[in-house]
Structures are given as structure tokens and as C-alpha cells.
Design brief:
This protein has about 240 residues and is α/β, with parallel strands linked by helices. The protein folds into two domains: about 55 residues; about 160 residues, Nucleotidyltransferase, domain 5 (2-Layer Sandwich). It contains nine helices and five strands, in the order ααααβββαβαβααα. A five-stranded mixed sheet has the order 3-2-1-4-5, with helices on both faces. A hairpin with a 5-residue loop joins strand 2 and strand 3. The chain starts with a helix and ends with a helix.
């Protein structure tokens, strides 16, 4: 159980651990454990005072159903709708299609920009001092400078004011920016899920003035190093770097 305990502390989910065991120990059948068994073990430990449950995504002592939610925002002027986006994006049969959003700290303490590549689930992120469009625009342009042009096809975002500078993003990065429908967070499901994972490191209500760039870098590195079921339990870094 040392392997499971170590990976839980790295904030891997039980399902990620189960899948990765088969890759890390392909010939050792003793290194097999279902994700349900891991959940049961963690919750059983709660009764003894251990707190491994705090490393789970929700941190609860028992499992609960999840519910979706909408963005609740208006429309950005001159936006291009997600319905005008190439159908190839929905198929996920190519790399270079991204989803963008922001994770808020407590009021007035800043935000974290998050962009995730839909096929590899690779994350790029940056801490911003505010949610102003100018900050989001410049950070997005700066981060995408390091991405090869062939891996910059589209960027789909919500209707928040931080994306008012989308035209400059398009001009400087050559990405085509599209906007999801209001109250349709599932249209950016990869990013919504990723933001939930990022909250393990920066919980709601966190004072982001106390969060450093290095803190964000470490969280991003950790998330990009977590195996994903949809990637055959490879990590986003392994997949993205192979390109």
C-alpha cells in the first residue's frame, strides 16, 4: 500500500492509481487494486484518524454525487460561437484544440489562468493579479509563445469579461477563439474538470496574494504528471512531449 499512499499524497485519484499500476508493474499481478477498493480503504482509515481522504479531489469522508452547473454569464461582443467551430474539435482526432478559463481566489486577490489541450489534457497556467481582460490577454499570448504553431488550432472559452481581448489573442497566437453558450459548462468539459482538480491545490476562498508563481508551476507540473484514463493511463506530459 506504500505505492497507493504515495500517489494519493501526490493527489492522484484512485482510478488514476489503478490504471497506472498496470503500466508501472505490468508483470506483477500482486500490484493490482481496484479504485473502489482504494476508496473503501481510504474511508476506512478515516475511522482510525488518518486523513488520506484530504488528498482526494473532494476531500470528503464519504462519496457523494456530482452535479453540473452553468457559467451564468452574458455574451462577449463580436464573439464567434462554438457552433461555428470545426466539427474536428468535437471528434478529438487532432492535437491543438484548447479550452480556456480562470480559477478565482477570494475577492480581489487575483486569479489563475488555465488552458488545457483537449486531446492530451496538457495544462498551461499562470497566476494573474486580476481578472481584467488585459492581464488574461497578455498571459495567454505569453504562454502560447512556447507552443509550436501546429499545436495551436482553436481556443474555446466562456463568456467572462477576462476574454474581451480575444481578438488580440487571435492576432498574436493565430489561434481561432470560440465562445461556449451561456449556462453550458459541459461544452468546455475538459477545462471544467481540470479546474476542479486544480482546486485540490488552491481551494475556493484561497487568498491568491499568498500564492506564488512557483506554487502554480508546481501544481501544473503535478497535474501534467498524473496518469489519465482517457490517455490509457499515460500522463499529459508524456503525450504532449511525444508530439
Amino acid at each position: 500500500m506504500r505505492y497507493v499512499r504515495r500517489k494519493l499524497k501526490q493527489k492522484w485519484s484512485p482510478e488514476e492509481i489503478t490504471g497506472r499500476l498496470k503500466i508501472d508493474y505490468p508483470s506483477d499481478l500482486s500490484m493490482r487494486m481496484s479504485h473502489e477498493a482504494i476508496y473503501s480503504w481510504v474511508y476506512k482509515l478515516c475511522k482510525t484518524g488518518e486523513t488520506l481522504n484530504k488528498h482526494l479531489r473532494r476531500g470528503r469522508k464519504r462519496r457523494r454525487k456530482q452535479h453540473g452547473y452553468g457559467t451564468g454569464r452574458g455574451l462577449v461582443a463580436n464573439r464567434k460561437s462554438i457552433h461555428d467551430r470545426s466539427k474536428a474539435v468535437d471528434l478529438r482526432n487532432r492535437y491543438g484544440d484548447w479550452e480556456g478559463d480562470s480559477v478565482l481566489g477570494s475577492q480581489g486577490t487575483g486569479t489563475i489562468m488555465t488552458h488545457i489541450e483537449r486531446k492530451s489534457l496538457y495544462l498551461i497556467a499562470a497566476k494573474l493579479s486580476s481578472k481584467e481582460a488585459a492581464d488574461m490577454t497578455q498571459a495567454t499570448i505569453q504562454k502560447f509563445k512556447k507552443i509550436p504553431q501546429r499545436l495551436k488550432q482553436t481556443l474555446t472559452v466562456d463568456n467572462g469579461k477576462e476574454f474581451f481581448g480575444f481578438a488580440e489573442v487571435e492576432e498574436r497566437t493565430k489561434l481561432k477563439v470560440y465562445f461556449a453558450d451561456p449556462y453550458a459548462s459541459w461544452q468546455r468539459g475538459c477545462n471544467e474538470n481540470l479546474n476542479g482538480l486544480l482546486r485540490q491545490y488552491f481551494p475556493k476562498g484561497s487568498d491568491f496574494t499568498k500564492v506564488t508563481d512557483e506554487d502554480v508551476t508546481k501544481a501544473v507540473r503535478s497535474l501534467n504528471s498524473r496518469p489519465r484514463k482517457s490517455l490509457g493511463y499515460q500522463t499529459p506530459s508524456e503525450v504532449f512531449r511525444s508530439l
